[in-house]
Amino acid sequence: GVRLRLDVWPHESLVALSIYREGVEQVIVTFWFYVLDRIRQVQHKSESCLLFERVVLLTGPNPLDEDELKHVKAELSLRLQARPHVQVAFV
């Protein structure tokens, strides 16, 4: 199986979503995101999720500076839900 690991650095507006093989500490792949808006928990009936609003996919763990932000061509939002099953969606 695989494990999904989420790391959030709120002060840097960075999010890392990593996939590992079960029982192995070496990462298969890490997706880095820079959050342009806000991170919030959304509760709807019996489900809850984390919503990362307006994110940009990065090539590494370095935040964007103001000049780089001017050249961002595409933004999306990331939704992460753990119950009733793990679900990661771009919305």
Give a short overview.
With 91 residues, the protein is mainly beta.
Distance between the termini: 26 Å
Structural category: mainly beta
Rg value:
14 Å
The averaged pLDDT comes out at 86
**Major sheet attributes:** 7 strands, antiparallel
Number of helices: 1
Oligomer: single chain
Low-confidence stretches: none
- Report the portion of residues in β strands: over 45%
| Count of β-strands | 7
The sequence of SSEs as H and E is EEEEEHEE
Helical proportion? under 10%
The outline comes out as: globular
Q: Would you write up a description of this structure?
A:
The chain contains one helix and seven strands. It has one helix spanning 66-69; strands spanning 2-9, 14-21, 27-35, 39-44, 47-58, 76-81, 87-90. Strands 1, 2, 3, 4, 5, 6 and 7 form a seven-stranded antiparallel beta sheet that branches. Strand 6 and strand 7 (87-90) form a beta hairpin.
Topology at a glance:
Layout: E1 2-9, E2 14-21, E3 27-35, E4 39-44, E5 47-58, H1 66-69, E6 76-81, E7 87-90
Antiparallel strand pairs: 1-2, 2-3, 3-5, 4-5, 5-6, 6-7
